[in-house]
Design brief:
Helix content: 10-25%
Number of helices: 8
Protein name: AsmA family protein
Distance between the termini: 225 Å
GO cellular component, one term: plasma membrane
Radius of gyration: 52 Å
Keywords: Membrane, Transmembrane, Transmembrane helix
Strand content: over 45%
Pfam families: AsmA
């Protein structure tokens, strides 16, 4: 009989289908409060978590047995904090084990609109691992599918200290029990930052991978990973990132109970525009080995690069083995780092080898590095300064902080330094540098034969100050700039906003001591300079030779300088300099002129005075002095003085005049007066010899004004003759007056005698009576 045409058989099949449909569909419309309570109680007993089912709970028998829960929350273990919430949760069981053994075996878990707070603890464990362990022999797990649809996920990594938020996330792991067809797909949005504020960064995430869950080994294999993360919109202003992209490929192996990464390989590349700079990176880890007690990353390579309109940075790192006994601590005995930086202004190339310790994935300690390299810039165009350093340091990638403490050699001279850098985009430096010697002469621009150390018409270049943000101290035992030597240079510096202040600034210079401050402000147009210095016991000859290109003075000097100037060339500074300079010299000399000899000549040969310009004295001629004092006022590049006072033993000098720093011209007048206690100059007592200086500052001509001296002598002679005549006339007048007085006295006496002779003799009647 053909059962297909048997009416009873067809009726039986129809009844079975109707009953099956009713059994499968009916539970959707029936509420099982007892099921809800049993589930809540079982979860509490197995996980120590509190489950709340605010919505309905249903049981479905066909096509597969399943439990459907709506509006469900689950807490952290023994903590009321919500771990997860789902609008809809469906747990599907395998039918055959349920029929044959009566034991439910979980086949699939489907969650719609879940909100999860995933935490990776510092020890590498996750806050959901207890849910993956079988808590009862009554329920088995043979998971074939796990899906999260329109999920919101907060991923907090306490190991790395980062939090990632995912939203509108569709995560599906399907056919996990099939050794050939298991797969993973991922699609959603990602953001970083606190939930209560606008995201610091946001983008779209997508990915796929082959999934292999081996039930007997309880191992999850994720192969052929393709993960992409692309930025959407602008980042927060403080981050300054746009157009960021990250991609990862590789293979990872996880143990399932507990959930742990056990090995694999990964390649991660990224690119981003940050503050006008294009940053790229590539990480290659060809072998990952991870156990419960150790982690090893073998043959690790990490490259990072940066480009902007004017500069380029590249750094390459190779680490044979990076491993450790703890998840938060990794170490390698030898990391090799090569770094190159190029720009129109400067170039740097270094090679570094060091043991390295890595903490939390972003803190690196360079335990004992050795660094070699070279540095050059456009202000030092004729060579590269060599570096050979040893030291230790720390690198904080999250907070963008680099600290290095080094000892070694800079261009062959001993150096020790502490350098701290913050913010890789706009670097802020803290520096302490102690250098034995720095000779920049071999690197300075070539000058023409006979030229001075610098070109006064060349534009001053302050490219190095444009983005410099630094604070600290610098000591240089000896600084050499061609013929200029500065010893024991010490300064504290503050540089920011194109302005640098060196305060205090001290040095041993020109055999004396310098103390004060200096300032350059390149933010002003033209550039502003200020120099406030006190120089004590200075060798004035070498100082003036280097500063003003003249060697006319020698001796030890004390100088107080308070000068400001503006300009973009040294020639500009000479024209605009203004301020005050006070000088005191002792035991020195004025070269090129012998003023005492001029006075001796004037004293001995007054008759030859004719007012002619005297020839310049021999180069070794000099006027020695014991003390010199002068105050100079600078205004618009012209130094004026009117209180020169020089004590030179046999003579005194006073005077005043001007020096035009811009043109290098001198116009100065002095008056020389002789010491009256010197016998050979006694003839010049009370006289002054005017001496004028004019012409180029480094080779002025002088003129002794003998005509003025002759006029003074003639005036003195005339005065003496007049005084003599006046004295003689006065004497004659006195003698005449005396003679007149004598005559008058004689006449008075004679008159008195005559009067006495004319008086009569007394008579008796006129005699007085006696009693």
């Amino acid at each position: 009989m053909d059962w297909r045409h048997s009416r009873p058989i067809r009726i039986l099949i129809l009844l079975v289908l109707i009953l099956s449909t009713l059994v499968g569909v009916l539970p959707y419309f029936l509420s099982f409060d007892s099921v809800r309570e049993q589930i809540i109680a079982q979860v509490q007993a197995d996980t120590q978590r509190t489950m709340s089912i605010r919505g309905s709970a249903h049981v479905v028998l066909l096509p597969r047995p399943a439990i459907l829960l709506n509006d469900t929350t689950l807490s952290e273990p023994q903590n009321p904090t919500i771990f997860a919430h789902a609008e809809s949760l469906k747990v599907v069981f395998r039918l055959w084990p349920l029929i044959t053994t009566g034991k439910p075996v979980i086949h699939a878990i489907e969650v719609e609109q879940p909100e999860l707070s995933i935490v990776r603890n510092e020890n590498g464990t996750y806050n959901f691992e207890d849910l993956l362990r079988p808590h009862s022999d009554k329920v088995g797990v043979a998971l074939d599918k796990l899906s999260f649809l329109q999920a919101k996920l907060s991923w907090k990594d306490e190991f790395l200290g980062e939090t990632l938020h995912l939203s509108q996330l569709d995560l599906i792991m399907d056919q996990l029990t099939d050794p050939k067809k298991g797969n993973l797909s991922l699609q959603g949005k990602a953001s970083m930052g606190e939930k209560t504020s606008a995201p610091v960064w946001q983008g779209e995430i997508s990915g796929s991978a082959a999934m292999r869950y081996l039930e007997k080994e309880r191992t999850l294999r994720i192969a052929d990973i393709e993960l992409n993360l692309i930025q959407q919109g602008e980042s927060a202003p403080e981050l300054q990132v746009k157009d960021a992209k990250l991609s990862a490929t590789g293979n990872l192996n996880y143990s399932w109970e507990p959930l742990r990464l056990t090995g694999g390989d990964m390649k991660v590349s990224s690119s981003a525009n940050r503050a006008g700079q294009l940053w790229t990176s590539a990480l290659d880890i060809p072998e990952i080995q991870l156990t419960d007690t150790s982690l090893n990353l073998n043959r690790l390579k990490f490259d990072i690069g940066m480009k902007d309109q004017h500069s380029e940075l590249s750094a390459k790192t190779y680490i044979p083995t990076l491993g450790g006994a703890h998840r938060s601590f990794l170490r390698t005995e030898k990391a090799q780092i090569s770094l190159k930086y190029k720009s129109p202004e400067q170039n740097l190339a270094i090679q570094l080898t060091t043991p390295m310790e890595l903490y939390r994935g972003y803190l690196a300690r360079l335990a004992a590095y050795k660094l070699t390299g070279n540095y050059s810039n456009r202000s030092l165009p004729r060579g590269e300064i060599r570096l050979a350093l040893e030291g230790h340091g720390d690198l904080d990638l999250r907070n963008e902080v680099l600290s290095l403490e080094s000892r070694g050699q800079l261009d062959g001279e001993n150096i020790s330094s502490q350098i701290n850098l913050e913010n890789f985009i706009a670097p802020q430096y803290r520096v302490n540098i102690d250098l034995a010697k720095l000779d920049l002469t071999p690197y300075l621009p070539v000058v023409s034969a006979g030229a001075k150390t610098v070109d006064h018409a060349a534009a001053l270049d302050f490219w190095w100050l444009k983005n410099l943000n630094a604070i600290g101290s610098v000591k240089i035992g000896e600084l050499v700039l061609q013929n200029m030597h500065v010893d024991d240079l010490s300064m504290k510096l503050i540089a920011r906003n194109q302005r640098i202040v060196l305060d205090p600034l001290s040095a041993t210079i020109y055999e004396g001591r310098l103390n004060g401050r200096a300032e350059i402000d390149a933010s002003k147009k033209p550039v502003y300079f200020r120099l406030e210095q006190m120089l004590t016991n200075m060798n004035i000859n070498t100082l003036l030779t280097d500063v003003l290109d003249t060697s006319r003075f020698e001796g030890r000097s004390d100088i107080i300088i308070d000068v400001a100037a503006v300009g973009n060339k040294l020639a500009d500074l000479r024209h605009t300099a203004g301020g005050n300079i006070r000088m005191r010299l002792k035991q020195g000399a004025i070269r090129g002129i012998d003023i005492p000899a001029l006075l001796r000549t004037a004293s001995q040969q007054i008759k030859l005075m004719n007012g002619e310009t005297a020839p310049i004295s021999a180069k070794d001629a000099r006027t020695q002095f014991t003390a010199l004092q002068a105050t100079w006022q600078l205004k618009h590049g012209i130094a004026s003085n009117n209180d020169l006072n020089i004590s030179a033993g046999i003579l005194n000098l006073s005077g005043g005049g001007e020096i035009n720093l811009g043109s290098g011209e001198l116009n100065y007048n002095m008056k020389a007066s002789a010491n009256p206690n010197v016998p050979e100059l006694s003839g010049l007592k009370g006289l002054t010899l005017p001496i004028s200086f004019s012409g180029p500052l480094n080779a002025p001509e002088y003129k002794a004004d003998y005509t003025s001296l002759k006029a003074q002598i003639m005036a003195r002679q005339e005065a003496e003759q007049k005084a003599k005549a006046q004295a003689e006339a006065h004497k004659a007048a006195q003698e005449q007056a005396k003679a007149a007085a004598q005559r008058k006295a004689a006449e008075k006496k004679a008159a008195s005698q005559r009067n006495a002779a004319k008086k009569p003799a007394p008579t008796a009647t006129n005699k007085p009576s006696k009693k």
